[in-house]
Amino acid sequence: MSRRRAWAVGGAAILCGAALLGPSAATGSTSDSGRVAVLATSDGPRERAGHLVDDMSVAEQAMSVVMGHIPSTDPAALGSYMAQGLGGFILMGANIPASAAELTAVTGSLTVDPELPPLVAVDQEGGIVSRLPADGFAASTSLKDLPVAATSAAFAARGSLVDSAGIGVNFGTVADVPADSSSFIFGRALGTDPSTSAERVGAATAAQEQFVASTLKHFPGHGAAPGDSHHAIPTTTESLEAWRQTDAVPFVSGIDAGASLLMFGHLAYTAVDPAPASLSPRWHEIARDDLGFDGVIVTDDLGMLQSSGVPEYADPVANGVAALAAGSDLLLFIAGSTPETAGQVAAGITAAVETGSLPAERLADAATRVMTLRLQSSAATAEWAPCAECEPVG
């Protein structure tokens, strides 16, 4: 993983246009024009991940595919929570303290094993959905009407800010194509049609991937399915062929631009599968085989399924097992989650493997994909070296 890092200074990210320096070049005097990080990347993260997962018990693998959350800024409480062996943690508003130094302490406390940090994520879209108060960069409400270059600049700055806080994953790129301005996702979308959305999604992805693992959401797209998936299961009868020509286009652009994660929404395209995409083997097959996505598939908050009020989605453990069986790799739990939820879900996954209702190979594959991303992220360690060709953007 070769990600450049940058300083966020005075509302602008200072980026380097030169090639990355090798480790031997991390010398010399400080330059007023900015600095660029030197990244040390380990070889064969996928192979190493496979060996690590092979050495884990089923219970450990199960815990490693859960991304949890508790509403706290207490480093001791957060460290104790992560000591269960979770693969990741999502920061919400209740995890963001007043100062940058306190935030760094929070994110640092989430790492139990310095050799294998978890995936620390945040929803930092900017504008309407923004967890980090220092993010004053242009966001979707204005970017959809500005040249594509403005999206690149804003998301490069945003990615740098997220990285500087010790956060390695940004759930920040909305690839949905809103059907009209009344859609709840309209204000958060980067474009108003497949073409303009795709251009900006690709630009946002390429810009962020210099600093953090970026995420495309909410696959297969809110645009055709009216309703808010925080409280219901938005549904559409749009055909797969129509989807390929419309809602799929920004996701294809983001995948081609190198997005590390793809977030599945709780959306039902009934002409393809009556189940929500997050629980649909067919939609996972489309993402992998048709779109060629080979990274980590993460669910949207599985607590949202419970919030829908649909009786068959009332059990968080069953939802987690079903999403994993369908093809998701990382299970996200926020709404309704308690400190015990992650352990309960992991126990349910373990039991499903032991009874044969969940193939052990599916769990191992998911754990390996998550572990690979963890290794790639932890390998992107930085030493700062002078950069003579940096200029402000944003």
Sum this structure up briefly.
The protein is of the alpha/beta class and 394 residues long.
Question: Which key features would you list for this structure?
Answer:
single chain; 394 residues; alpha/beta; TIM Barrel; eight-stranded parallel β-sheet; three-stranded antiparallel β-sheet; 14 helices; globular; disordered C terminus
Strand content: 15-25%
| Amino- and carboxy-terminal Cα gap | 24 Å
- Structural class based on helices, strands and sheet pairing: alpha/beta
Tell me the name of the CATH class.
Answer: Alpha Beta
The fourth-level CATH homologous superfamily is: Glycoside hydrolase, family 3, N-terminal domain
Largest sheet: 8 strands, parallel
Radius of gyration: 20 Å
Helicity, in percent?
Answer: 25-40%
Count structural domains.
1
Tertiary shape? globular
Quick one: how many beta strands?
A: 15
Supply the number of helical segments.
14
Low-confidence regions:
4-42, 381-394
How does this structure look, described?
- The protein is an alpha/beta fold and 394 residues long.
- It has one domain: Glycoside hydrolase, family 3, N-terminal domain (TIM Barrel), CATH 3.20.20.
- The chain has 14 helices and 15 strands.
- It has helices at residues 45-54, 58-64, 75-82, 100-109, 140-143, 148-164, 194-208, 240-245, 248-256, 281-290, 303-307, 316-326, 341-355, 360-379; strands at 7-9, 12-16, 35-40, 66-68, 88-91, 119-122, 169-174, 213-219, 235-236, 261-264, 268-269, 296-299, 331-332, 381-386, 390-393.
- The strands form 4 sheets. It has an 8-stranded parallel sheet with strand order 12-10-8-7-6-5-4-13.
- Helix 3 (75-82) links the parallel strand 4 and strand 5.
- Helix 6 packs parallel to helix 7.
- Mean pLDDT is 86; it is low at 4-42 and 381-394.
